[in-house]
Specification:
Length: 160
């Protein structure tokens, strides 16, 4: 079963349905939890790191928060009044906790372009999707993505 809720796709596999009817409507009910469907070409996982986003055109910087990552892109929460628009080339400096991730550096820089900007569930924040440039992506970024995917798969549930 698939469902579209507020533009996000969800699925349930291998479930039983109960039919319910009241005076206003009839509906099916499942006791299973909906799982979000990944719509990117690469698997995306939640990740919450501090970050700094630099506009590569005018070198303006702003603090941000990483929302999700994949091998081909990164989702970043920025202020609503930010001047970062679709098509803007950016550098994202991801600030990691090197002691828990066994990284030599505590800042990983990736280069990309903003490909989408939408409202988020967070007050006064927009969610910006950044497609990464393969040439501007260090190998340590792929290591970070792998570690976060394993953590998420093993049950780490990041609360908003």
């Amino acid at each position: 079963i698939t469902a579209d809720v507020n533009g996000k796709k969800y699925t349930i596999k291998g479930t039983t349905l109960d039919f319910h009817r009241n005076k206003e409507e009839a509906f099916y009910y499942s006791g299973e939890i909906l799982r979000m469907v990944n719509q990117r070409g690469a698997y995306r996982t939640q990740a919450y790191f501090r970050a700094v986003v630099t506009n590569n055109r005018n070198h303006a910087v702003q603090d941000a928060r990483i929302y999700d990552i994949s091998s081909t892109g990164v989702g970043v929460l920025i202020d609503k009044d930010s001047s970062l628009l679709i098509g803007t080339p950016v550098t994202v400096s991801i600030i990691t906790d090197k002691s828990s991730l066994n990284f030599r550096a505590d800042c990983i820089k990736v280069v990309g372009e903003i490909v989408r900007r939408t409202e988020s569930d967070f007050p006064e924040k927009h969610l910006v999707g950044i497609k990464l440039d393969e040439k501007g992506k260090p190998a340590i970024y792929d290591k970070l993505v792998s570690i976060e995917q394993v953590r998420y798969r093993n049950g780490r549930n990041n609360a908003k």
